[in-house]
Amino acid sequence: EGAVGKLIQTNQMPKARALMERLAATYPDRLYVELQRHADGDGQMMEAERVTERAFVEMAYAQDLPLVATNDAYFPKSEMYEAHDALLCIKDGAYVDQAAPRRRLTPQHYLKSPEEMAALFADLPEALENTVEIAQRCAYKAEKRAPILPRFADDEVQELRRQAKAGLEARLAVIPHAAPVAEYEARLEFELGIIEGMGFPGYFLIVADFIKWAKDNNIPVGPGRGSGAGSLVAYALTITDLDPLRYALLFERFLNPERVSMPDFDIDFCMDRREEVIRYTQDKYGHDKVGQIITFGALLSKAAVRDIGRVLQLPYGQVDKLSKLIPVEGVKPVSIEKALADEPRLREMAKSEEVVGRLLTHAQRVEGLLRNASTHAAGVVIGDRPLDELVPLYRDARSDMPATQFNMKWVEQAGLVKFDFLGLKTLTVIQNAIDLLQRRDVSIDISAIPLDDEASYKLYASARTVAVFQVESSGMMDALRRMKPTCIEDIVALVALYRPGPMENIPTYCEVKNGLKPLESIHPSIDFILEETQGIIVYQEQVMQIAQVMAGYSLGGADLLRRAMGKKIAEEMAKERPKFVKGAIANGVDEKKAGEVFDLLEKFANYGFNKSHAAAYAVVSYQTAYLKANYPVEFMAGVMNCDLHLTDKLAIYKREVDRLDIEVVPPCVNRSRARFDVQNGALVYGLGALKNVGVEAMRLIVAARGDKPFATLFDLARRVDLKRVGKRPLEMLARAGAFDQLERNRRRVFDSLDGLVTYSAAIHEARASNQVSLFGEAGEDIPEPRLAAVDDWLPTERLSHEHLAVGFYLSGHPLDDYAGPLKRKQVMTLAEVEKKAAGGAFVARIAGAVSGRQERKSARGNRFAFVQLSDPTGLYEVTVFSDTLEAGRQYLEAGQNVVLTVEATMEAETLKLLARGVQPVDSVVADAGAAGLRIHIESPDAITSVASLLARYKDGPARSRGPLWFCVTDLAKGQEYDIDTGQMFAIT
Q1: Which helix (H) or strand (E) holds 912?
Q2: For 504-509, which contacts have Cβ atoms below 8 Å and span 24 or more sequence positions?
Q3: In the CATH scheme, what is the code of domain 300-370?
Q4: C or N: which end of the chain has fewer Cβ atoms within 10 Å?
């Protein structure tokens, strides 16, 4: 396949010889002539190799060049050819049955043994000897290096001391002291001594520098993350914003003097501006000395089954079923081998169905292989010299930064130090809210808010925590209701407890906290350690403190004990148990009790949580709770701006906004900005949140509007180049009612867009060409187009178009008129189903407006469907199997309103609904009183005459009577009003 080989294959021998001579002159003593022998599907030598081998051998002998025999290996064994072929299909998006260029490979492209190669090249033994020679010449032994960092200052020790002492003095001048000043100073001196002894002053200075730059440039930085929040030096340098003495955090959990390892600060930055901080480090230290770290994506069992199933063209339903039979342990699926051993149904399918056996065989062979290369989400390395002098580099097509070809583990072995620049969306939410508050002259220093705000803890206790960091899930909300937090320590504990294993202690914590159960003492000597967590071991730091207080360990030694316990190292445990018991006895603890405490520590060390991390994230959670409790409109706008294009999330937040009784101004070209905004206490819907519009296109409209609202559609077309905005975004604006202030008839706007865009383009082209008009400004003489003469969409059609543009119903919902009858028929809302499902599976009836349906075929050939619906409280999806689908397919079309009988379960905080029955809404409410009637009137003056006409319909059978509303349009004010008559009518 090389240049010489291609010349030989095209019969250009003189050029081939000349090129070989030039190569030999360029690479004296290093040029080898390679020969390969692979059999094709017929057992014959591959054509290209057969054609070139004789010429290669002749040129090698003629020019006295060494021959080398090789085998082009793509897989370790011949029987893996088909699995490798399937892997290539996965990469190329192809099918196994398709012919493709990859078929140049054969089953012979495997890693042959020395014996097989000797037999294959028996006629050229010297070619095999040269293979070994090349291997010896290429041998390289990677050496482990000590950490390499750029030099930050001439005397880093003194510079760190200067900054740390000045920083602590500044902190103590403004914060409430959790201990005497002398204790802070002693702790600082202790930490500095360890940092200096380990040789890490430069590391602290580098981290402090880029964090200071971020804060100086108004880039939000988190208060801390991980064990680094336990360092007072970090707090003094403003790397973290948590006083470790206030929260009883341990430095030794971060940097252990008895176990030398690199410190590791994980830093959270605002999601939108994280890249700016990385760019700063590149500019400061050199673009060739700063890089990202490569990561490799492996093909896990479930993904392998799905991918192989796809390239083998098996039915989706069959592959889906096989994949779901592979259990998940923790966050990863078990191996296919283990799944076959543990799951009899999978075993049976593999035996009874040949295609399934083939799929699983191929999947096992590709399982664990590296599927793709990417870059670490947060890791950045900074060297003291160009990175290519230390490690091989890789270029990710999505970034202009170099990346190391060594992964995270091996870059550290090569001496490079990793810095984690993480993007945390919640910091962006907080900053969004602060920016909106600043616009009405409310200034907040989020790091200085009071930690005893009553409104914030009331919000936690009521579990009204949608969009509040760390406590959004239904399980967390349930825990909050039981706990009724009253202080920041409760939130710290909940962050630590709400995980598999520890969460079984949440009921005990809540009962003891609320006086329903006495605190059980493990031993009087350690009661003060466990007092804040209601007698429960919650944190890793508590394990360390108990070992220190009860058994006389140093905190460094206690950290080593905690690590050994967490990793269940039997050999270490055998050494530590007698040491712990002996130390406890020396401190007056009974031997039996000492053994019991050791066992207890061993249990809790396995899933105890890092208190430093829990405290840092509890503070961020509290900051969001504080903003929501005290500034709900700005907070919700900030939240929604972070999920501008996630319709499902926006629907949830809109439901919360309604619950908070916040006025929502619908999309409007005269009031909305590109993003969500707050005006006069109301949340103004962002134009950029509409589907298929684009924030930049909406900014064109907002910029052109300035402080002067558009007067008409033609005024809009003259001031905004609608061609640049695009017809599709304009259609979405019309569907959403964003032009209602300019023209109430949405359909007229929608049908007139072609003319308006043409008109706008002509005006802006005339201005761009500086044409002079007799009537004034360029383009002013271009006639206004005629608007379409059409009736507006019906109310149901308006809602349908609005749903298409917004992603959910904004101004109303198709089920609004059915609310009363549905309630009387015990049909639940989505919100009610979610709340009840959190307590266990149950059967319910739920109403919904159908917005979409995707049908699939199961392994047995039966059709099933995923149906998307909504009700006034949110969006949801229902799985409908074949029998129910056949019986109710005609009702499950987009735009239909239905009532579903469903099995509701909560799996991993996600509501799962399985339909068992489908009925149209009208048939369900037929005997529950009429669904209600909404009469649309274009003038308030008509109400009196319509009301007198309706008076005759007040009497009638109770079962036929229903509520009546007027929807009145006030054209003068451009407003719509809903008027409930408060009476029941029987109208036919």
Answers
A1: strand 910-920
A2: 505/536, 505/538, 506/479, 506/482, 507/482, 508/534, 508/536, 509/483, 509/533, 509/534, 509/536
A3: 1.10.10.1600
A4: C
d(CA 107, CA 285): 50
- Token pair recorded at residue 438: 């600043």
Average pLDDT over residues 901-923: 89
Dihedral, CA of residue 713, residue 717, residue 723 and residue 724, to nearest 10: -110
Q: What is the pLDDT of residue 958?
A: 43
Nearest C-alpha neighbor of 147 from the set 413, 330, 344, 403: 413
pLDDT one-digit tens code per residue, 734-771? 999 999 999 999 999 999 999 999 999 999 999 888 75
Matching residue, tokens 């403190």: 545
Q: What is the DSSP letter of 47?
A: H
Homologous superfamily assigned to 3-137: Metal-dependent hydrolases (3.20.20.140)
Place 143 in a pLDDT band, splitting at 50, 70 and 90. Answer: confident
Domains of the chain, by residue range, sit at 3-137, 145-270, 272-299+371-416, 300-370, 439-623, 661-804, 816-924, 933-985
pLDDT digits (tens, 9 = 90+) for 812-868: 999 998 988 999 899 999 989 998 988 889 999 999 999 888 888 776 778 899 999
Q: Please tell me the predicted confidence (pLDDT) of residue 859.
A: 63
CA 829 – CA 813 distance, rounded (Å)? 13
CA 240, distance to chain mean position in Å, is 24
Q: Check: CB of residue 262 under 8 Å from CB of residue 412.
A: yes
Say what angle helices 301-311 and 316-324 make with each other, to 10 degrees.
160
Higher pLDDT pick, 731 / 258: 731
Q: What is the pLDDT of residue 840?
A: 86
DSSP string, 412-460: HHTTBPEEEEEEEHHHHHHHHHHHHHHTTT----GGGS-TT-HHHHHHH
DSSP SS3 for 770: coil
Q: Do residues 399 and 393 make contact, with C-beta atoms less than 8 angstroms apart?
A: no
pLDDT of residue 959: 43
Q: Does domain 816-924 have CATH number 3.40.50.300?
A: no
